[in-house]
Amino acid sequence: MLLRNNGASTLGKILRRPIITTMASFDGTGGLSWDAMRSTFAMFRGGKAAAEDRYISGSLGSITNVGVGQTAVAEEQPEGTKNDAEAVLEDPEHHELPRTTSRFTMSEEVFRAAKTAARGSPESFWTHTLYRGPEQDGVETKVKVHYCRTKHTSEQVLQQYFLNKKVLGFDIEWQPEAYKNMGIKKNVSLVQLASEDRIGLFHLALYPKDNIDDLVAPSLRNIMEDASVTKVGVAIKADCTRLRKYLNIESRGIFELSHLYKLVKFSSSRDFKLINKRLVSLSTQVQEHLHLPMYKGDDVRGSDWSLPLQMDQIVYAASDSYAGVHLFDTLEIKRKELDPTPPRPYNAEEGKPIRLAEGVEIETDEELEPEEAENPTLNKRTYPKRPSPSFYEEASVEMDKLDSDFCIEVSQPTTPMPSTRSRSSKSSLQPKSPLVLAAAELVDSYRSSHPKNKATPSGLRCYFLWYHNPELSLPDIAALLREVPLQTTTVINYILESVRAERLPFEKERLRGVLAELPKEVVSGRYRTLSRACEAEGVGKTKN
């Protein structure tokens, strides 16, 4: 079969639309560093690029898959069988809650809301935000995401939350056009681990140092090299080959979900000859066994994983590793129900054949790793488009300060409730925009970490709205902030004074547009330093 044009590949990432911006440097003291500020801002950004769909779409079960830089292998449909996508839709089980032994589950209400949501809408897709755990003080527990940008914080999080887990979802990301001579951070940018209640995003590309010893937290090495800890994922052997090549991590206890998927699927149908080691996309497995589609956006935009993650990237990158945990659980339930019951497939690093129930080992094709492929087929990668604001409207974001890193908690309740964080006056009849609420959260975070800051809360809120939402015009921002819109000149003043007072980052071209709204004598006077910074050559960093 022909490979779809939105599969995972390295070249697909090169076809991105970079947005060149800079962080200006100008006179002044104090202020947050570029990396720290940019990472903080990124958590709330709901636009531009989102986390990539790492896997090949198309007919469910008809195309095998590998991650970025790995070879996609077409798998033909057996003659006389229905397309797997049609079979899944017709299967009554597909309309029921997926079975699980986990403490974290989707409620019937949440599942039905996703199933009945408009097809292709963000609310119809599977993500980790749908899951809830046991109540604590009468409140359901949400899945927490830890976004760690230093080795020190990563070690703390790994020790406290992941070190004693027996099953973990695993995934990695890297810069799309990375080659061996580009260094470690470009080739292993982000490591993702997930348990049933937490997800860790360990952003090695943002760690301050570049040596292997400064990039590998001891607990990460212990987890990956411990054969008693099962790490599950799709194309996991190739991902761990990359860990060995660039970080000297000899991974053990790695489990390929595609092997278990094939064993369960074709043992049940008695089509034993179809059991092989060819990879099956994560989206296919989620659709078939977790009964909801994974998110696939229409916009194809490169996502540079060596830069601080944006909020929507965090949500979807977290879901990749979290899906592995629930797929393993559900597939194990189904394997154990088979009569006779086949043994679980061997760990991927052992390289052994898949065993049938009777103990007969069948010859299986090895999945191709990048360096093994004779004719690698490179495809475009598909990235989600920005969800509508309603997708994040009821999402709560809780940030706990942890050595400049953050614990992010994202939820997606099905029943809208008024926000408790609204800054609007009591007389306001309009609910706050989710963009305004996100900006307000950032104001609280910034002011708590910068008690001597000189910018006003209103100015900071206006700045965050402007910085994170380039599609909004100045009048749009004025209208969002108040039921009776602010004057545009007030918005301009808020933005410029905040940048000037706190040395906040900005995109040169966009700030030039703001300055252009003012009289020249004002620009050349009060904002002379900002104007010069906008015109400076080679200042700052590139932002995607």
Q: Which short descriptors sum up this protein?
A:
544 residues; alpha/beta; eight-stranded mixed β-sheet; two-stranded antiparallel ribbon; 20 helices; disordered N terminus; disordered C terminus
Describe this structure in words.
One of its GO terms (biological process) is nucleobase-containing compound metabolic process. Residues 363-394, 410-432 are annotated as: Disordered. This is Werner syndrome ATP-dependent helicase. It comes from Hyphodiscus hymeniophilus. Residues 145-336 form the 3'-5' exonuclease domain. The protein is of the alpha/beta class and 544 residues long. The chain has a domain at 421-535. Helices cover 36% and strands 8% of the residues. The protein is built from 20 helices and 10 strands. The protein has an 8-stranded mixed β-sheet with strand order 8-7-4-5-6-3-10-9. A two-stranded antiparallel ribbon has the order 1-2. Helix 9 links the parallel strand 7 (230-233) and strand 8. Helix 5 (151-162) crosses helix 8 (218-225) and helix 18 runs antiparallel to helix 20. The two termini are 35 Å apart. Residues 1-82, 297-302, 368-405, 410-430 and 538-544 have low confidence and may be disordered.
Could you give the order of the helices and strands? HHHHEEEHEHEEHHEHEHHHHEEHHHHHHH
The global form is: elongated
Q: How far apart, in Å, are the first and last alpha carbons?
A: 35 Å
In what range is the share of β-strand residues? 5-15%
Derived from helix and strand composition plus strand pairing, the structural class reads: alpha/beta
Query: Any idea what the radius of gyration is?
Result: 24 Å
Q: What is the average of the pLDDT values?
A: 74
Number of helical regions: 20
- The number of distinct β-strands equals 10
Main sheet: strands, sense, barrel: 8 strands, mixed
Identify low-pLDDT runs: 1-82, 297-302, 368-405, 410-430, 538-544
Strand order of the largest sheet: 8-7-4-5-6-3-10-9
The portion of residues assigned to helices is 25-40%
Organism: Hyphodiscus hymeniophilus
Biased composition (Low complexity): 411-432
Protein name: Werner syndrome ATP-dependent helicase
Keywords: ATP-binding, Helicase, Hydrolase, Nuclease, Nucleotide-binding
